[in-house]
Amino acid sequence: MQILRSIRELRQQLSSIDALRRGVGFVPTMGALHAGHGRLMETSVRETDSTVVSIFVNPSQFNDPGDFARYPRPFDTDAAFCESLGASIVFAPSEQEMYPEPQQTFVDVARVTERLEGAFRPGHFRGVATVVMKLFQIVQPDRAYFGEKDAQQLAVIRRMVADLNLPIEIVGVATVRDPDGLALSSRNQRLTPAQRALAPLLYQALQLAASRIAQGSRDPQSIEQEALSVLAHPEIRVEYLEIVDPAFMQPVDRIEGPVRIAVAAFLGSTRLIDNVLAG
Amino acid sequence: MQILRSIRELRQQLSSIDALRRGVGFVPTMGALHAGHGRLMETSVRETDSTVVSIFVNPSQFNDPGDFARYPRPFDTDAAFCESLGASIVFAPSEQEMYPEPQQTFVDVARVTERLEGAFRPGHFRGVATVVMKLFQIVQPDRAYFGEKDAQQLAVIRRMVADLNLPIEIVGVATVRDPDGLALSSRNQRLTPAQRALAPLLYQALQLAASRIAQGSRDPQSIEQEALSVLAHPEIRVEYLEIVDPAFMQPVDRIEGPVRIAVAAFLGSTRLIDNVLAG
Question: Quick one: CATH architecture of B22-173?
C-alpha cells in the first residue's frame, strides 16, 4: 500500500492504472459559430486526437430573458462548420437533457466575478461556471478551449479549474476580429448597419488605452477617461470601461504589470464586450 | 463526424476512446477510522480493482473551530487499518496541498441542505460539497462510498453528482453500531463514561419512531414528540429530531412512503447524530 500526500503523485499513480491518454479536446459554445469559434476548433483539432464541440444555448447564464430568446440558433450551418474544421463530435443536448430536474447544485466563483460582467449581469457567472462544470464532467476532456474575447469568463474558468482540481488544461485563444477591429461575436449580426459602423469604436478605445500604457502612463483613471471619450456618441451606452489585473479582474490603483482593459457597451439593444491585454 | 444529443450516448462514445475501465473505488474520510469506515473500505475493496482512502480533516466543513481543533488525528493507526483491509492508496494531503491558495470556488447544493445539519451547521455542507468535489476530481473514482450515518451528507453528494453529471456511482453503506445501538462515530471517543451510557438513547428514540410508523402512525409531529420524550434527560440537549423525505430531506406533512428519521443532540460538548430509514 502506498501513502501519498501530493495531488501530483496521486494523479501519476492513478494514470498508471489508466492505460491510454485520451487526448480529447473540448470547445464549449452556444452555437451561432463564427471565425472566433473556428479558431478554437482549429487549435483543438491541431492539439488533440478528438475534438468535441458542444452547442447549447444555456438559459441559466442569461440574466436577460429577451437576450436568450433572441440568441441565434442556426444549427445546420453550425454543424457543417464543425464538420469542415475536423471536429469529431458535436454535442447538442436539449434543455431537458442538460437539466432533467430543477438544478439545485451551483458552482460559485468569488472575487474574479465581482467586477465587469459579474457586476452588470447578476447570476451570469454562476450559470456559466455551473454549465461548464456539467459539460466538463460529461465530456471529460484533457484540454478545453475558450476565447480571450470573454476574458473574465476565461479567468473564472481558470479559477474554477484550479480551485476544484479539475484535471483539464484550459487554453485561451486570441480574439478574432473583423478587418476594422470589431471582435467577432454571435451578437454582431443583430447590429443595424449604422450600429455596425460605430461598433469598431470599442476596439479603438481599448487600443488608445493600451497605447497610453505603452507610452508610460500608469494612472488607470486618466487612461479610462481618455478611452471613454472615444465612445462618447449618442448611440453608444457604455456600461464599463475598466483596467483590471488579469488574474482576479480587480481594478488596479496603478499600472505596474500586465493589465486587462475591458469594455462593455450597448449599441441600441445589442450589448457588446471586448478587451485587450496591455502593460 | 457524429452529432449526439444525449449524455449517455456521448459518454459511450468517449469511453470507446478510453481503452480500459479503471475500477477505482474511493472512500473519503477525515481519519479517526472505526468499523464504520472499515465497512466502507471492505465494500470498496470487494467491488473495485483499487481502493483509494483519503484522510483529510477538512477545515472548511467545521462551523465550530473548537470541534476542528479537537478532532482526533491518529494517523499511524488509521494507515495500518487501511492496510489491513486491503486499501491500495491512502491519500493524506496537507491543508497546503488541498488549499494552496485561498479557495474562491464553492459548490452549493440548495434545498437538500436547508434542514437538519444544514440548519444547525451554517456553511458545513458548502465545505463538504466543495472538498468532496475537489477529491473526486483528484481521485477520479468510478465509485465512491459514503456511510448512511451521515444521511443528509449522502443525499447532498447524490444531488451534487446528479446535478453536475459526475460520472461516479455513489454507494451508500449501512451504519455500523455498537451492540447497544450507538452508531459508530469518531466523536464517540470524546464521551465521558456517563455520557457514553446515555448515548444509545438516540438510537432508541429513532427506533421508537420507526416502530410507530411500522404500526401505522402517519402523523410526523406526534411521532416526533413521543421520540423526543425518550431523550428528555438533563445531560442531553437535542438540536433536532425530524422526519423528512429521504431524497430532499424536507419535513413531510404525512407519512406516505419511506422517510428518514434524523436526530442530533449534544451530550456535554460532544454532538452526535444518527438516523434510520422507515416506512
Answer: 3-Layer(aba) Sandwich (3.40)
Cell 471565425 identifies what position?
A: A35
Q: Which of B3, B27, B8, B254 is nearest to B139 (CA)?
A: B27
Are A163 and B104 within 8 A, CB to CB?
yes
Closest CA to B27 of B54, B50, B46: B54
Tell me which CATH homologous superfamily contains domain A7-173. Answer: HUPs (3.40.50.620)
User: Which residues in chain A have Cβ-Cβ distances shorter than 8 Å to B2?
Assistant: 88-90
Residues of B in contact with A140 (CB under 8 A): 14, 167
CB contact under 8 A, A82 and B1: yes
Predicted ipTM of the assembly: 0.91
Q: Where are the domains of chain A?
A: 7-173, 186-278
Interface contact A22-B18, CB threshold 8 A? yes
Q: Give backbone dihedrals phi and psi of A274, rounded to 5 degrees, phi first.
A: -160, 165
Q: Which three cell numbers stand for residue A160?
A: 474554477
pTM (2 decimals)? Answer: 0.92
pLDDT digits (tens, 9 = 90+) for B29-68: 999 999 999 999 999 999 988 899 999 999 999 988 888 9
User: What is the three-class DSSP state of B170?
Assistant: strand
Mutate to test the interface with B, among A33, A77, A165, A168 (most CBs of B within 10 A): A165
Q: Do B3 and A90 touch (CB under 8 A)?
A: yes
Give residue-wise pLDDT tens across range A226-257.
Answer: 999 999 999 999 999 999 999 999 999 999 99
- The chain A residue lying nearest B56, using CA atoms, is A5
DSSP string, chain A: -EEE--HHHHHHHHHHHS-S---EEEEEE-S---HHHHHHHHHHHHHSSEEEEEE---GGG-S-HHHHHHS---HHHHHHHHHHHT-SEEE---HHHH-SS---EEEEE-STTSSTHHHHSTTHHHHHHHHHHHHHHHH--SEEEEEGGGHHHHHHHHHHHHHTT---EEEEEPPPB-TTSPBP-GGGGGS-HHHHHHTTHHHHHHHHHHHHHHTT---HHHHHHHHHHHT--TTEEEEEEEEE-TTT--B-SS--S-EEEEEEEEETTEEEEEEEEE-
DSSP B250: -
**What is the least distance, in Å, from the CA of B23 to any CA of chain A?**
9
Contacts of residue B176, Cβ cutoff 8 Å, sequence gap at least 6: B34, B35, B36, B38, B39, B183, B184
Fold observed for domain A186-278: Pantoate--beta-alanine Ligase; Chain: A,domain 2 (3.30.1300)
In total, the C-beta contacts within 8 angstroms joining chain A to chain B are 166
